[in-house]
Amino acid sequence: MSDEKDNLPAVSAGDEPNGQVQLAEPIPDPGIEPHEHRITDIDPLAADRVERQVSTMFTLAGLLALGSCVAYFAIPRDATIEFGPLTGNANNMTLGLTVGLALFLIGAGAIQWAKKLMVDNEISEERHDAGSSPEQRADIIQGFQQGVEESGFTRRKMIRRSLIGAMGLLGLPAIVFLRDLGPLPGRSLYNTIWAKGIRVVNDVTLRPIKPSDLVVGQLVNAAPANLAPIEEESPVEYQNAKAKAAVIVVRIAPDQIRPKAGRENWGVDGILCYSKICTHVGCPISLYEQTTHHVLCPCHQSTFDLADGAKVIFGPAARPLPQLPLAVDAEGYLIAQNGFDEPVGASFWERG
Amino acid sequence: MSEKRLSLSPARFLSARRRHRSAGLVVLLFGLLAVGSAYAAFAPDNAEADNSAQSQQIEEGRKLFAVGCASCHGLNAEGGGNGEGKMAGPSLIGVGAAAVDFQVGTGRMPAMQPNAQIPQKPKAYSQAEIEALAAYVASLAPGPAVPAEESYDISKVTDEQITRGGELFRTNCTACHNFAGKGGALPNGRYAPSLMGVDPKHIYEAMLTGPQQMPVFSDQVLQPEDKRDIIAYVTALQEQKDPGGFGLGRLGPVSEGLWGWLVGIGLLVGVAVWIGAKGVRAKGAKAE
């Protein structure tokens, strides 16, 4: 009975007999099962066979290691292996195979050795208590109190107070340094560099666009014309400005467009311009299907219908893509009537 | 000639000899002669035909169209529906020769069945037939022509131009076709196909005409040298070798992670099971 009690969890083995339920062990501890010998324990021939197996693996591993050194020098760096549809660098593949196999054989040999030849008597080790003994605890508390006494921490009040003050003030820099996370964004989240009269140009080639260049079903990944000069001044500002101002221009058959009230003149003969930045978490999107006028965000599958004011028709985005009102300038190139009338990209706290 | 005269003789003359030993042979020769003459008279490549080579090609294309395409696209290519997954195909008025050359040249047309997307397959028409079909469709209304060979000739492009093509590719194409040109999924069972193994001419025509749901990148916006640079970059992607021997679709962390988790960790689990397994025991035996 006392043996069983020792095996119970500490919770139920409380010292106070305050009505705690004494859990009886549901199945008695069967102890360690009787030791059975392996074939290699009773048959010396089998043991010798395993010894040969293990030593063969180790020898092979050594030979493979040597072989990898030979291959390193012998196989030209630009030689390729072709195996069906797979092609690979012959040098790389040989090094990987020889060294990898050598490592595997050392491991496999060690396991075989341990399983078949090393002594395999079962043993059990009792766990010791997690807590320290009462004597140790008393000893440590007494030592700490003696330290407090001898340092004079409680008696010399000036030292104590100045130390506490210094430690407290050290917390201040940690807060003040947070200022470097700023400056605060201010209104920059609300504005892009699009403004009245800015030309719409091709991204990368920076060519301005005429309405006659675009056919129905067209997609243009575009940028504002005033973006390129910023790159000269500050590459960081350039990336920030481009990330916000990227747009897609599409041409849709005019009879398929259902413009929102007040946006009837925002397109030019079915040419519409929308922000390229998804309103969910700001991925750039241009997976445009000309047959359905849908643009799909690859990150979370938000889908917008560009013929219907970029209405969200699927996915987690909460708002339509902001639309850029288009016009044509005196030379016949596409320009913005105005900047965006709402912030582009992901929602943020202040805009609600 | 004697057979011909025979055949022109009165019925009585023929009737009297209809059981002649060589009557069957005579009839056969006559039949062959008649078919041969008719073929010579009506064959499209007859030198006496008064049509010019071009209108003849259009006529040939019209015939091929009536047989292979009209059931969906209408007898006059006016379209049998709106083309959005319906049984019938869209109007081909004004799609131009480039669209025909792409759709038929990549085997997408004639379509097997109206699925979410018409897949690429071995082409069903010879190059001459494709040219005839393209000439017929181009004759209906003006549209983009098949690009000239020098516009997608990438034998002289420089490394700088390939790099520029890469920049254009990443801006305009990667959203759907993946950064390595391996293609990707689109809504409702549609997909952007892989660009591996696609002919430079067909890449050019796809950008020019916007097949299926792909948007158009017209020659005024992505100008011919832009398209050539993009094609050079895609070709460089196609020719790129996988140093490790196995690109795993070049999809990056997704396929590599799947491989690592399933195969790599699977092997480790297998070894762990081997280490922990209790080997064969000689029950009741005593060690020597």
Describe this structure in words.
The complex is a heterodimer of chains A (352) and B (288). Chain A is α+β, with helices and mostly antiparallel strands. Among the domains of chain A are: 39-116; 200-351, Rieske Iron-sulfur Protein (3-layer Sandwich), CATH 2.102.10.10. Chain A contains eight helices and 13 strands. Chain A has a four-stranded antiparallel beta sheet. The two termini of chain A are 68 Å apart. Chain B folds into three domains: 1-15 and 25-37, no CATH class; 52-146, Cytochrome c-like domain (Cytochrome Bc1 Complex, Chain D, domain 2); 148-241, Cytochrome c-like domain (Cytochrome Bc1 Complex, Chain D, domain 2). Chain B has helices spanning 2-8, 11-16, 23-42, 53-68, 70-73, 96-105, 127-140, 159-172, 174-177, 200-209, 224-239, 253-276; strands at residues 184-185, 191-192, 281-282. The radius of gyration of chain B is 31 Å and the shape is flat. By secondary structure, chain B is mainly α. Chain B has twelve helices and three strands. At the A-B interface, strand 1, helix 2, strand 2, strand 3 and helix 4 of A face helix 8, helix 12 and strand 3 of B. Strand 1 (37-38) of chain A pairs antiparallel with strand 3 (281-282) of chain B.
Name the descriptors:
heterodimer; A: 352 residues; Rieske Iron-sulfur Protein; four-stranded antiparallel sheet; B: 288 residues; Cytochrome Bc1 Complex, Chain D, domain 2; 3 domains
User: Which architecture of the largest domain in chain B per CATH?
Assistant: Orthogonal Bundle
Number of contiguous helices of chain A: 8
Strand content of chain B: under 5%
Radius of gyration of chain B: 31 Å
Q: Helices and strands of chain B, in N-to-C order?
A: HHHHHHHHHEEHHHE
Look at the structure and give the CATH class of the domain at 200-351 in chain A: Mainly Beta
Question: How many helical stretches of chain B?
Answer: 12
> What's the CATH topology label of the largest domain in chain B?
Cytochrome Bc1 Complex, Chain D, domain 2
The count of DSSP E runs of length 2 or more, i.e. the number of strands of chain A, is: 13
State the CATH superfamily name of the domain at 200-351 in chain A.
Rieske [2Fe-2S] iron-sulphur domain
What characteristic shape of chain B results from the CA principal axes?
flat
What structural class do helix, strand and pairing data of chain B support?
mainly alpha
Helix content of chain A: 25-40%
Main sheet properties of chain A:
4 strands, antiparallel
The proportion of residues in beta strands of chain A is 5-15%
